[in-house]
Amino acid sequence: MSLAVEVTARRGDFVLDAHVEVADGEVLALLGPNGAGKTSLLRIVAGLERPDTGRVEIGGLVVDDLGAGSHVPAAERRVGMVFQDHLLFPHLDLTDNVAFGPRSRGTGRREAARVALDWLERVGLAERAGEQPSALSGGQAQRVALARALAGDPAVLLLDEPLAALDVETRQEVRGLLREHLRAFAGPVVLVTHDPLEALTLADRLVVLEDGRVTQAGTPAEVARHPRSAWVARLVGVNLLRGEAAGTEVTVGRATLTTAEPAYGPVDVLFHPHAVALHRTEPGGSPRNTWRAVVDGMDVEGARVRVHLDGPLAVVAEVTPAAVAELGLADGVEVWAAVKAVELQVHPR
C-alpha cells in the first residue's frame, strides 16, 4: 500500500484508534458523523498533528514512527491537501498561489511559474492567472486550491470536505472537475466528506469512522448493500435494526418482527423507508408487522417526504406529500407503522 496509517491519538476524552491503507491510484472516501476523527486522521497524515502511538507510511517512506521516535515535519512530506475553505494566500496572485507547491520543493521561480500556469490551464483559469483570490467565486477558488495541491507533485492527495462550502450548482460543476483529476492522479487519495453522493461518485472504496474507530470498510456497493451501523444506514437511505432471531421472529428491544425467511442468533434487519406504510388507525388485512409510533420530524427530498418515527422501533418512512396531507402528519402526531415481512432483509451479524 502506498499510504498506510495505524495510529492512536488522544484529544481530551476522545481517542482516535484507526488503521487505514490506500493503494496507488485508489480514491478512498473517509465517512463518519461529526467528531468521529476524520479530519484529525487527515492532519496526522499531513504532519499537522502528531499521533500518540503508531506509524504512518507514505510511498514507502516512514514519516511517523512513534516507537522509533521519528517524525517528518509537514513541510518535508510529499502531501497535497485541499481544505473546505480552500485557504488560498490572499496576498499572492493565482500563479504564485499555485507555484507555492513547486517552490517549496526547491523548483526555481521560472519553472514553478510554468508549472503553475499549466495547472491553471488544466482547471480552466489560465486567463485569471494574474488576479488575486479575492476576485474569484467559491468554485473558482476551489479549482485553484486543487491546482495548488497537485502542482507540487504530491505522493498522496488529501481532501477535507472540498465541496462543502459551494452552492449546489457550483458543487456539481467542481465535482466533475475533481472526478477527472482524481482519476488521473497516480497516488493514493483520501477524501473526507459528509455527502453520500460525493462518496459514491468519486470513491473506489469507503471507510467509515465512528467514535474514533473504523466500523466498516468496502466498496460503495458493499457498504450500501449491508450497512453495519445505524449511521451508515441513514447515510445510504435505509433503516437498520439490530436484534436476535429465532426462526422467523426477530426480537428488537421491546418489539418483535416477523420475517419471511428464518434466521438464528444476532442479526441486522434492513428495509427501505418506502416499505413503511403509515396509518392513523391500526391496519388490518394481510399479515404484517405493525406498531404505534410518533412523528418526530419530516424532511422533504424531491417528490417524497421522509418521516422520522419514534417509538418501540425508531425508523424512517417515506411517503408522498399527498399522504402527509391526507394523514395530517406533523410533529407529535401518533400513527400506526406497518412493514410486510417480505420487505425485511435479514443478515447474520
> What is the subunit organization of this protein?
single chain
Main pleated-sheet profile: 6 strands, mixed
Give the class from helix and strand content and strand pairing: alpha+beta
Order of H and E elements: EEEHEEEEHHHEHEHEEHHEEEEEEHEE
Give the class-level CATH name of the largest domain.
Alpha Beta
Assign the CATH topology of the largest domain.
Rossmann fold
- Domain count, please report it: 2
CATH superfamily of the largest domain: P-loop containing nucleotide triphosphate hydrolases
What topology, given as strand order, has the largest sheet? 7-8-9-3-10-11
Unreliable spans are: none
What brief labels describe this structure?
single chain; 349 residues; alpha+beta; Rossmann fold; OB fold (Dihydrolipoamide Acetyltransferase, E2P); 2 domains; 6-stranded mixed beta sheet; 9 helices; 19 strands; 26% helix; elongated
Description:
The chain is of the alpha+beta class and 349 residues long. 26% of the residues lie in helices and 37% in strands. It has two domains: 231 residues, 3-Layer(aba) Sandwich (Rossmann fold), CATH 3.40.50; 112 residues, RNA polymerase II/Efflux pump adaptor protein, barrel-sandwich hybrid domain (OB fold (Dihydrolipoamide Acetyltransferase, E2P)), CATH 2.40.50. The strands form four sheets. It has a six-stranded mixed β-sheet, sandwiched between helices. A five-stranded antiparallel β-sheet has the order 2-1-4-5-6, with helices on one face. Strand 12 and strand 13 form a beta hairpin. Helix 4 packs parallel to helix 5. The mean pLDDT is 90.
